[in-house]
């Protein structure tokens, strides 16, 4: 596809969001044009009135004369012209007002409808994008695209594009009327239009880099404030308040200076623009007066002409600005279509739902994230259904990657081994089905800004309160929750600040238990819990888990020593495999870590030790 084909495709991608709201924009445009039409009548009425007073007659056969003659015969018209003229001004102003109202109402409906449709579609699409896509794209950037860029596109379609059409209509209409009154004077007025538009176009394209810099400085300042507020505990703990204040001052200064510079540029622009407009008005006035004195036009013509000319000044000046700002939309359309073009995660037709309470098997699995170095190297193991399987390994050894692969967040490439559940390659099992049947608790669980009860019950459609308490009981967090004034109705604040790390982990365990999944994964999810509670939770889990298959990942040997089978992972390779006793007897990595952890004092034991 060539460049213009690509641009058209992008424009079509965006224009489809007009479905359901596009007709409002057309109505807004039509109402806006009618407003312009009625506004154009007033100078004609003034022209007629003035010529009537002075007894000049070039406008005698004009449109207003023709309309008035419809209502009253010539004789009566003479006596009532002032009333008629006043009524005509009032009627045209009222009509203009009414159409302005409708134009704004339709514009708001069309514009908000377009925005809503675009946001809805983007949100829905992002929800369905693969996890790997999220891994490659920064959250802040995605949010920026869904807010700022979407807003710029809305302005482009619903404001700038409409404005350009409205201005072009106004210019064509007014120039047609002006040409009908005096061709020579109209040619002078017309000659200024490209100069004014060209000047503002040139100016705005020149200062767009200053605008961009100032916008970026604003983003920088916001990010600084956000980081500071999020990390307020660290700032206080390290006594970094003054340092943070200085850093903020620097960014704030830069931000202010950049906007002052933009302000200076804009002052030059407005000043020079005023001068240009004034020079044009002066030229029209001088030439118009000469033509009037020469009898080429009436006094009414001159006044009406000057009035039309003045009404053209602002729209023409803003045309350059609007056209120049429209170019920004191209970048935003690119940024939004980048998200929309990303392939959604979809089930292939051959993927099915199979029983998940079966053996899990990794067969010669090799895996690397994108172009990065290999993370898993020939990993093979089998987890019999209903058993507890533990994985021990140093930081970055690939433990979580195994879970990502099992959950189909990433798929294995051809020839890189196989993962099966009940003998079925998981590539042939629906992704949604896999995830629904694998309960997962992560090391740093994410809790929503909702009540604790809602957080626990999120995985279940119609949760019963006794089920919520039951799950919380197994996760040893029921007692702690009841100690809060509002119990299960306690709101978990932004990022769950009202709960301790260990409490959050336990709420996440309770949430996972609600899922009653046949496979449960605990990815270092007891790390923030003290050793005693860890033992209690595991005992309660053992009792309640029934036939579920459990995968335990931990740095703490006491957490996983009772597992049916333990795998030691070293730099993506299976280093050891066996029961606790077998591994101790081998005298390898596992037994070394065991010795270190067992010899540590209680304090260290509570924190857990990384097995590196
Ligand atoms: N989404 C990703 N994209 C690219 N590289 C990744 C991604 N996730 C993990 N890695 C890399 O893969 C390697 C294994 O990471 P993984 O999270 O599986 O280790 P881990 O054993 O669970 O570590 P930890 O105990 O610290 O959680 C690391 O080098 C990590 O940097």
From TrEMBL:
Span of domain ABC transmembrane type-1: 26-328
Transmembrane portions of the chain: 81-102, 164-181, 187-204, 268-291
GO molecular function: ABC-type oligopeptide transporter activity; ATP binding; ATP hydrolysis activity
UniProt main location, coarse: membrane
A Pfam family recorded for this sequence: ABC_tran
Domain of life: Bacteria
Record-linked InterPro entries: AAA+_ATPase, ABC1_TM_dom, ABC1_TM_sf, ABC_transporter-like_ATP-bd, ABC_transporter-like_CS, P-loop_NTPase, Type_1_exporter
Cellular localisation: Cell membrane
Residue span(s) of domain ABC transporter: 360-596
CDD domains: ABC_6TM_YknU_like (cd18542)
Bilayer topology: Multi-pass membrane protein
GO cellular component: plasma membrane
Keyword annotations from UniProtKB, A to Z: ATP-binding, Cell membrane, Membrane, Nucleotide-binding, Transmembrane, Transmembrane helix, Transport
Record PANTHER family: ATP-BINDING CASSETTE SUB-FAMILY B MEMBER 10, MITOCHONDRIAL, ATP-DEPENDENT PERMEASE MDL1, MITOCHONDRIAL
Protein's name according to its UniProt entry: ATP-binding cassette subfamily B protein
């Amino acid at each position: 596809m060539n460049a213009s084909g690509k641009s058209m495709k992008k424009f079509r991608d965006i224009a489809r969001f007009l479905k359901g709201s596009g007709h409002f924009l057309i109505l807004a445009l039509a109402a806006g044009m009618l407003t312009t039409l009625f506004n154009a009548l007033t100078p004609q009425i003034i022209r007629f009135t003035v010529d009537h007073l002075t007894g000049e007659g070039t406008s005698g056969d004009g449109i207003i004369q023709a309309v008035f003659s419809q209502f009253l015969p010539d004789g009566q018209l003479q006596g009532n012209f002032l009333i008629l003229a006043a009524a005509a001004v009032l009627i045209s102003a009222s009509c203009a007002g009414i159409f302005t109202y409708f134009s704004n109402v339709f514009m708001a409906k069309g514009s908000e409808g377009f925005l809503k449709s675009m946001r809805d579609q983007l949100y829905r699409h992002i929800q369905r994008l693969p996890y790997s896509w999220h891994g490659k794209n920064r959250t802040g950037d995605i949010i920026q695209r869904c807010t700022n860029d979407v807003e710029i596109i809305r302005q482009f379609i619903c404001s700038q594009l409409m404005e350009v059409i409205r201005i072009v209509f106004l210019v064509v209409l007014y120039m047609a009327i002006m040409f009908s009154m005096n061709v020579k004077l109209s040619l002078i007025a017309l000659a200024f239009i490209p100069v004014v538009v060209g000047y503002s176009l040139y100016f705005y394209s020149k200062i767009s880099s200053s605008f961009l810099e100032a916008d970026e400085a604003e983003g920088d300042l916001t990010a600084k404030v956000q980081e500071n507020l999020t990390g307020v505990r660290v700032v206080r703990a390290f006594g970094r308040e003054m340092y943070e204040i200085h850093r903020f001052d620097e960014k704030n200064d830069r931000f202010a200076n950049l906007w002052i510079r933009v302000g200076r540029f804009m002052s030059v622009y407005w000043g020079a623009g005023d001068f240009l407009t004034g020079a044009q008005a002066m030229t029209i006035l001088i030439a118009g007066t000469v033509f009037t004195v020469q009898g080429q036009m009436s006094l009414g013509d001159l006044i009406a002409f000057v009035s039309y000319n003045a009404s053209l000044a602002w729209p023409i000046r803003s045309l350059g600005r609007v056209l120049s700002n429209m170019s920004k939309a191209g970048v935003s359309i690119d940024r939004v279509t980048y998200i929309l073009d990303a392939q959604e995660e979809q089930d292939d037709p051959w993927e099915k739902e199979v029983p998940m309470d079966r053996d899990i098997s990794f067969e010669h699995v090799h895996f690397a994230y994108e172009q990065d170095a290999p993370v898993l190297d020939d990993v093979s193991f089998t987890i019999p259904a209903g058993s507890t399987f533990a994985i021990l390994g140093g930081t970055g050894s690939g433990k979580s990657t195994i879970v990502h692969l099992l959950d189909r967040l990433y798929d294995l490439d051809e020839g890189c081994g196989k993962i099966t559940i009940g003998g079925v390659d998981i590539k042939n099992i629906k992704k949604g089905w896999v995830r629904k049947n694998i309960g997962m608790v992560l090391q740093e669980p994410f809790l929503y800004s909702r009540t604790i009860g809602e957080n626990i019950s999120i995985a279940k459609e119609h949760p019963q309160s006794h089920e919520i308490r039951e799950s919380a009981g197994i996760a040893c967090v029921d007692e702690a929750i009841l100690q809060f004034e509002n119990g299960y109705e306690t709101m978990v604040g932004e990022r769950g600040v009202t709960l301790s790390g260990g409490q959050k982990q336990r709420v996440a365990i309770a949430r996972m238990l609600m899922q009653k999944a046949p496979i449960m994964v605990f990815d270092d999810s007891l790390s923030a819990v003290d050793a005693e509670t860890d033992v209690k939770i595991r005992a309660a889990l053992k009792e309640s888990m029934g036939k579920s298959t459990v995968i335990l990942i931990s740095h703490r040997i006491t957490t996983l020593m009772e597992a049916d089978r333990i795998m030691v992972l070293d730099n993506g390779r299976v280093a050891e495999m066996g029961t606790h006793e077998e591994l101790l007897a081998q005298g390898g990595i596992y037994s070394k870590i065991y010795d270190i952890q067992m010899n540590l004092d209680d304090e260290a034991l509570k924190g857990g030790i990384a097995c590196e």
